[in-house]
């Protein structure tokens, strides 16, 4: 078993054991706790990028004013930093909600595709659901891209939100994280629908098939006057700062510049687009 998966299993087991011990010994509550929304994001080490999370939480509170709102980060590496005391993993967050007497939890997934992180989140939710004296019901919303309808909707929103100063002879490249998980097919699917709307819009990924080399070749074939690099990620975090806009020669910005193509950038993530956040939040109602 891979170390990261082993660590996930151990954390889930320890959290469940701790929750069971607590509920078995906790005194009866005078009144039931309110239902909760647990917002689950990958997380980011870039503090400025976290402003997008505040905006997302605001929309969630407006949509569900009667529910407790909590957060969890799914990236294990980000939970091991010095600031861990202010962050909880999904296992820790659900265990805490259970000990507080919450019976119904809606998990809002802020993932872009149903990859490994998303499926681990679903498994964690199933582990905690229905335990004696624990959380009675846990639902998990779909990620942003999860079916044909959602792909079309996201493509249309992205096309409407292109940079105002962009001209039709300039290419726009939305760059996502990428994955080796089968869910990576959602990226070329999005590319297909984006091309229907504008042939100079491309989708790339930091990892896997739609990588820098592949996208650079496709863009050069179009001979654009310039390219706009836009993160296809929930927040404009480390991948945006370094892999996309970094000064190192293997960044997307430097690669296109070296190819003689002018580069323009948009340093905002998907979570700063109100329409896209609405799609995520509406997933809680499905």
UniProtKB/TrEMBL annotation:
Pfam families: CbiK. The keyword Signal applies. One of its GO terms (molecular function) is sirohydrochlorin cobaltochelatase activity. The active site is at 177 (proton acceptor). Gene3D superfamilies: 3.40.50.1400. Co(2+) binds at residues 177, 207, 239. Keywords: Cobalt, Metal-binding, Signal. Residues 1-30 form the signal peptide. It comes from the Bacteria. GO terms for biological process: anaerobic cobalamin biosynthetic process. The keyword Metal-binding applies. This is Periplasmic sirohydrochlorin cobaltochelatase/ferrochelatase. It comes from Candidatus Desulfovibrio kirbyi.
């Amino acid at each position: 078993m891979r170390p990261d998966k082993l660590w996930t299993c151990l954390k889930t087991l320890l959290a469940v054991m701790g929750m069971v011990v607590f509920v078995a010994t906790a005194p009866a509550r005078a009144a039931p706790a309110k239902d909760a929304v647990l917002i689950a994001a990958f997380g980011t080490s870039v503090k400025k990028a976290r402003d997008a999370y505040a905006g997302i939480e605001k929309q969630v509170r407006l949509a569900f004013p009667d529910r407790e709102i909590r957060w969890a980060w799914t990236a294990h590496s980000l939970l091991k930093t010095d600031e861990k005391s202010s962050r909880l993993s999904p296992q820790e967050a659900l265990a805490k909600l259970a000990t507080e007497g919450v019976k119904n939890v809606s998990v809002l997934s802020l993932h872009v595709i149903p990859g490994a992180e998303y499926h681990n989140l679903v498994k964690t939710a199933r582990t905690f659901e229905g335990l004696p004296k624990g959380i009675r019901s846990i639902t998990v919303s779909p990620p942003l891209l999860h079916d044909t309808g959602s792909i079309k909707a996201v493509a249309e929103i992205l096309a409407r939100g292109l940079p105002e100063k962009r001209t039709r002879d300039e290419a726009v490249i939305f760059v996502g994280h990428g994955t080796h998980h089968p869910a990576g097919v959602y990226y070329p699917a999005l590319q297909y629908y984006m091309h229907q709307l504008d042939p100079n819009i491309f989708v790339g990924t930091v990892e896997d098939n739609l990588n820098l080399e592949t996208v650079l070749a496709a863009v050069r074939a179009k001979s654009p006057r310039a390219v706009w690099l836009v993160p296809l990620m929930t927040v404009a975090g480390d991948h945006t700062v370094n892999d996309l806009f970094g000064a190192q020669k293997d960044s997307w910005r430097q690669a296109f510049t070296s190819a003689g193509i002018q580069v323009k950038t948009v340093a905002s993530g998907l979570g700063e687009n109100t329409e896209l956040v609405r799609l995520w939040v509406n997933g809680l109602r499905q």
